Amino acid sequence: GIQVEQSPxxxxxxxxxxxxxxxxxxxxxxxxxxxxxxxxxxxINLFYxxxxxxxxxxLSATTVATERYSLLYIxxxxxxxxxxxxxxxxxxxxxxxxxxxxxxTLTVKP
Amino acid sequence: DTGxxxxxxxxxxxxxxxxxxxxxxxxxxxxxxxxxxxxGQGPEFLTYFQNEAQLEKSRLLSDRFSAERPKGSxxxxxxxxxxxxxxxxxxxxxSFTGTVTRNEQFFGPGTRLTVL
Lengths: 110, 116
Fold this sequence. Notes:
The complex is a heterodimer. Chain A is mainly β. Chain A contains no helices and eleven strands. Chain A has strands at 4-7, 10-14, 19-25, 31-37, 43-48, 52-56, 59-64, 69-74, 83-90, 99-100, 104-109. In chain A, the strands form two sheets. In chain A, strands 2, 4, 5, 9, 10 and 11 form a six-stranded mixed β-sheet that branches. Chain A has a five-stranded antiparallel β-sheet with strand order 1-3-8-7-6, with no helix packed on it. Chain B is mostly beta strands. In chain B, strands 2, 4, 5, 6, 9, 10 and 11 form a seven-stranded mixed β-sheet that branches. In chain B, a hairpin with a 6-residue loop joins β4 (31-37) and β5. The chains are: A mainly beta, B mainly beta. The interface between A and B is medium-sized, with 25 and 29 residues.
């Protein structure tokens, strides 16, 4: 099956710093999502981004499907950005199985 | 609240007991998914339904696990004869797939199962 690797596994920042999280995948995909998992375990949708670039406030994401990677940018980080960030890929729109990476744990210190 | 809901949010049971979890998807969504997440890992796919049909099951879904979506709306996940290794967060998600090629999944808050 498709493999998803996220890096770095852990990231510690001071409030106000910028960061880049990476997601590599081993095969072509039709769907890619970025999620933020809060301390209570809820997965919050950040981006649906099978290709191209999107921005939402301090967050932006870029997926280069031909090179099989996606990047999540967090600018001017805040303590509330702390948590685990996951990317999930779906090989085909008609397939059901999303494959998740193991996540990047972000800690933003005040 | 029109998001995905799951019940119960927490379940503590003794080894060997049966447990059942419920998921209510977003109302217009035709697909419903179950995932399992253990500490330090990403969610792992278990099974999914399109309307009431169960279309795919993971190897992770042993004979002790069964899922249903009888009327194409809510779904239940039952685990029989629970084992300590079943302790995990069970996540439900839903999506709408139609003529537009998009399959964005939205997750519920999860049910955290602890097997003693």
